[in-house]
Design a protein that fits this description.
Largest sheet: none
Number of domains: 2
Distance between the termini: 46 Å
Strand content: under 5%
Number of strands: 0
Structural class: mainly alpha
């Protein structure tokens, strides 16, 4: 019954969020609390001294400790802090315009060749997804590349497929959602979650996955080239989207290389320093 309630909790949260019946924050808090209260009627309070005896009131009172204790928020607090500061770190870098020259360079290199465009899409999505946020990746990559795809007549589904493949592979980073959740679930009760230690053994698989993404991008690009034939861009070129005055005020083009060094140093520190990822992102 407890296992069933656990699966039911996950299903209900997904349904509420995907159907927009509740915001993610409300669904993630309310559903587990409700199913937790229901579970109080199935959990044996003292199996050693009173096997089979269910004390609903005692179980209900223990819920608070279960939520905030070492097996609850206490076990994921450091991971949550890491996630918050990783988003802040890469968000500040994005606002400073660190990735804008990289995006422009990639788009300049791909030209009007569908194969190069497909490869460039994969590389660009992988770079942008360093922050571990899928939403940010699509918000940056799609507006930047969609005019180019439309001008050439390339399928929009090709753009979506390549970005999703690249972002999905990069999402295995220690500060990505899937790795954080998997590491949390597999960490013994009472111990702090270490997403970096969990990530290191699968690093070769992630690198192999990125190679596979590039190979798939080549195949998709060749298919597009064969479908379109020798299509020219008809003089159209990539035009950078206009920035608001607030966005322009945040740009720091003179600090581009400083920011690149920060990114490289932060990743190196995450993999080799031994410090907790939350501390590293806070410092950087």
């Amino acid at each position: 019954m407890l296992a069933f309630l656990g699966f039911l909790t996950v299903v209900l949260m997904l349904v509420l969020i995907m159907t927009k019946k509740a915001s993610p924050l409300v669904a993630l808090i309310a559903v587990p609390v409700v199913t937790g209260i229901i579970a109080c009627g199935f959990f044996v309070t003292d199996p050693e001294n009173a096997p089979g005896v269910i004390d609903f009131v005692a179980n209900f009172k223990s819920m608070g400790k279960m939520i905030t204790g070492s097996s609850g928020i206490g076990s994921v607090a450091a991971t949550g802090v890491m996630f918050i500061f990783s988003i802040l770190f890469f968000g500040i870098l994005t606002d400073a315009g660190t990735f804008r020259p990289i995006i422009k360079k990639v788009l300049d290199l791909v030209g009007t060749d569908p194969i190069k465009i497909a490869i460039g899409t994969a590389i660009l999505a992988a770079i942008v997804h360093l922050d571990g946020s899928g939403a940010v990746t699509f918000l940056i990559c799609v507006p930047a590349l969609l005019p180019l795809y439309d001008a050439l007549g390339m399928k929009r589904t090709t753009l979506a497929t390549i970005v999703a493949l690249s972002a999905g592979t990069m999402n295995i980073l220690p500060w990505g959602g899937p790795t954080i959740r998997a590491a949390t679930a597999l960490t013994p009760e009472g111990q702090q979650t270490d997403a970096v230690a969990f990530f290191m053994p699968v690093l070769p698989a992630v690198l192999a996955g990125l190679v596979c993404v590039l190979v798939i991008a080549v195949f998709l690009g060749r298919a597009e080239k064969a479908r379109l034939g020798n299509v020219a861009l008809a003089g159209k070129a990539y035009v950078e989207p206009e920035l608001s005055d607030e966005e322009k005020a945040l740009l720091r083009p003179q600090l581009f290389w400083v920011n690149i060094v920060l990114i490289i140093a932060a990743i190196a520190a995450l993999l080799k320093s031994g410090f907790a990822p939350a501390v590293i992102f806070m410092v950087f």
